[in-house]
Amino acid sequence: MPRLVTERADVLPLLAEVFREHGYEGASLQLISQATGLGKGSLYHFFPGGKAEMAAAVLAEIDDWFERELYAPLRAAEDESVAAAIDAMFAAVDAYFRGGGRVCLVGALALGAARDRFGAAIASYFARWVGALADALQRTGCDTTTATALAEATVAGIQGALVLTRALDDPAVFRRTLQALRERLPPGNPVDAGNAGH
Amino acid sequence: MPRLVTERADVLPLLAEVFREHGYEGASLQLISQATGLGKGSLYHFFPGGKAEMAAAVLAEIDDWFERELYAPLRAAEDESVAAAIDAMFAAVDAYFRGGGRVCLVGALALGAARDRFGAAIASYFARWVGALADALQRTGCDTTTATALAEATVAGIQGALVLTRALDDPAVFRRTLQALRERLPPGNPVDAGNAGH
DNA sequence: GTCTATACAGTGATAGAC
DNA sequence: GTCTATCACTGTATAGAC
Prior knowledge:
Two copies of one chain form a homodimer.
Chain A: H1 8-26, H2 29-36, H3 40-46, H4 51-76, H5 82-96, H6 105-111, H7 115-138, H8 144-168, H9 171-184
Helix pairs in contact in A: 1-2, 1-4, 4-5, 4-7, 6-7, 7-8, 8-9
The structure holds a DNA duplex.
């Protein structure tokens, strides 16, 4: 049986969950130590910069995941496969955020005091999301202004759905809002393949 | 230095700003003391329950304001004045959140660990917002399902716009998103009642 | 690499002088 | 009412044993 944690990369998902649940300020080293099973000494061995470096590493990993699974496919979609790429984006969002049961760490950090510390990473994450989606929308015939406005409204809608779902503690809000956002985007209304069944 | 505070009610706006800027966990009594100009002894005189009571009082005051300035007018709007009430809601939102430069404390708390402590107040704030808006929308001819979905999408869109605006540090995002949200609501852009839900 | 022990500032909260 | 002093505790971070 291999050890639970052997490399720095193995801790990142556990760290991410602690930051998501408790926020940056609320995630104490004690909580992190419990969640990872590592003592403080080991944590500082992996992350000499302490909590700030842990959060930065988590953000970088999240950014990589979204870049690979969402942004790149949106940018790479050919004209006739844009609809499928957008469907895939919504499906990935629904899965990643567990139907609204999981918070967006980047969005949560953006609202808190930690925004100043991680401002560049936060801005880049959202700017590339909006940019990749607007890029894809333009290939459906939207002009630049419309595509950007639609992309912004969609990304904002997803973030707001996470806030509202968590506030009301009702996953149905997330499902409904995501579907409404999808239906507003060209091209056309998707066949209910992506996220209709639950 | 003149005294800033003579009653408990005078502290609430200052407290609210500290919680908005630093979050619940990040708002230390030291910061609160600086922002209000009150020593810890005075703070505990006004709020024997400490930080939790301060936050609860702030939430109650915010809730009162929204109830009075937003929810009640939406509910009270007659059929022919619903459009004006909705316009007024967007104007109030824009003013209250300072064009996206100010965070929604309730939304920020909903994303953080403090949600468990203030869950009831947070849920009530958003449920009554969605409810009041859906109520008004029904008076424009929407069926219940469509009105609820539109209201949810609008409130979520506002919250998401705050996240995105703060993340990108670009007030134009807030302005554009708010305008797009307004244009989607009837009356003015009547939905085709045939296929919105299912 | 991982642990224990520890340094030291900062936390929320309380008591008492004025 | 407001302040200062102080409480017990937790925070991040470091040092050193193994």
